[in-house]
TrEMBL record:
This is Ferric reductase like protein. The chain crosses the membrane at residues 39-57, 77-103, 124-143, 179-199, 211-231, 243-261, 287-307, 327-347. The keyword Zinc does not apply. Residues 87-223 form the Ferric oxidoreductase domain. It holds the Pfam family Ferric_reduct. Its main location: membrane. GO terms for cellular component: membrane. It is found in: Membrane. Residues 1-16 have a biased composition (Basic and acidic residues).
Amino acid sequence: MAGTPDRPRQAAEPRRRERRSRMDTAGLRTDLRAAVPDATAGLAVTALVFWLLYARIRSGESQTLAVMPFLADAGAYWMYWLCQAFGWSGLLWAWITVMLGLLRSTTRPGWSPVPVARIERWHRTTSLTTIGLMFGHAFMFFAELVRANEHGLGWGGRVGRAFVDAFVPGGYATGTGQVAILIGLIAFYLSIPLGLSFYYRATMGPRLWTVLHRFIIVVYVLSVWHTLLYGTNVWFDGAFRTLVWTLQLPVAALFLLRLLAPARRADRLVLGDPAARPPLLPLAARLAGRVAAAAAVVVLLAVTASGRDGGRTPGAQSGDPAVTQGMVWWGLAALLLAIAAVSWAAVRARPRRRSAAGRPPGPGPDPGTAASPPAGQQGAARGAGRRRRDARPHVGQQAADVVGPGEPERR
């Protein structure tokens, strides 16, 4: 019957579009398997940190006791200390994965012993581990709130209240935690779509995925801010708090190097060539980013050298936080607006789909309505086509002539 040979092709098109629109589950499964050793190491570090925190509480050496003396019963509050341990291991893994990502996207010297593909694989596996450790941090805080049940509620009420305090942004409404926990939850919830967007890159396109993934550095900054603001081990000025600041120095320096010498040629800023120079607004944004990164390096050097970051002083009365929940919400709105703007610009900058002949589609006769030539001309055309095909070499012979011996055939 006429038209039946086209039906399988027409039926296959929706299936191909559906496959392109789905998540790269095969790649995710591969990375999850590869992340098992990394996640095991993360849990081992968490257990080590838990033991250290527990021992310091038992001995009375922890600075946390100066902030919350009631936590001196280490056995009763073991869930809280496990929550703290997950937080520190999560921050460490976030530091590792950010450093690997910056190394991957920066121009590498020729003598580097580690291949780019291996760095990228490590970056993906440590990213998955980081998300898991962040969830463990939030979940153990939720479990501790359920156990403590400060409001004397029944099981349904205590679970619901703990869920709001631990997982709903803005739900925790007392003390410094109303700002610090909000910042931590924003970092956690942003890390999931920005981190897992890699597995949707075939759907969204490499350009859109690249600009989205760059915002992951904001997640890391929010995580460090959450730690310095609410971590009871770094509540006061001291050597350990200064160490946390010092560890941000290589991140800021490598981020500045990434901006000055990116691995992708398209990201390099060319000022000498007017033809390659970006428009005024993108140029100003890129220059501002470089200035901000350089300023961050200077500030971190000053904090490391002085040991002072404007934190709390032991024995002194702490004032109200300088940042309020409203400021954080407005900052989140500005961040989401920036993400939407650059995503829209990336989508608009996509090259238009070209036709099979290599030319942009243009006006022309509809193949379904174009007039057919007379039957005599059709027969002559078919005969000429057969003679031309007989005179041409075989397709495999053509391919061998083009690619040469020993080269893969291009299809």
